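Preliminary data (for renewal application), calcium ion complex.
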Amino acid sequence: MKSVLVLLGVLLPLTCFGQSGLTDKGLFFPKPSATSYVKLIPQKPLNLKAFTLCMRLFVDRAVVNQGNREIILFAYCTKDGDELNVWQEYGKISLYLRSSSEGAFYAVPLFSIFGTNLCVTWESSTGLTAFWVDGRRSTLQVYRKNHKVQSGGVVLLGQDADSFVGSFDINQSFVGEISDVNMWDYVLTDDQIRNFNEKVWVGPEPNVLNWNTMQYEVNGNVLVVPEKYN
Ligand code: CA
Ligand code: CA
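Predicted structure:
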């Protein structure tokens, strides 16, 4: 009995630490910060030969673009460094796989304060990658053919890590609202991605990151936006 109580004492603080399920909710990062971030817990390891990553963003350009800031939209890093990062930088959207310098760059339309749906797709076998803004696909590029995204990392919203879950830079932090971060370990079809714009999602269940059942940990000044705003 004593050992059970000791075990409960150890487990309870850990289980209280995380939260789960973000259906119809957003995460609001009100101002630049070097300490605020949200850690997302994937449903399975990110050893990926392909993916579709989608998210909804509310971004105020007047706040975000001051001084040519680079803004991290999605970060997945391992102990070896950045593994899968999506950025908005200098009027472009970019995808970086295991690199901080060689990315796939797209001059896509700027994000809106009234919300933007963004998806990025990539597959190793062909290297084909594309961004989708409000359901419309960009030109294709060939990037990192035969590459594989490796598991064992941590998914972060709000900050780019330059050491493992650390060394954050206030000038790279995300400012605005982000929601519906969903990830599949394959490339969805054109029609399915277009459906991501709809309020009611009719496509396949996300199997890597699922916003509706997401386990997550909030650190610092990040507000969970109530359902009534969505
Ligand atoms: Ca950085
Ligand atoms: Ca980094």
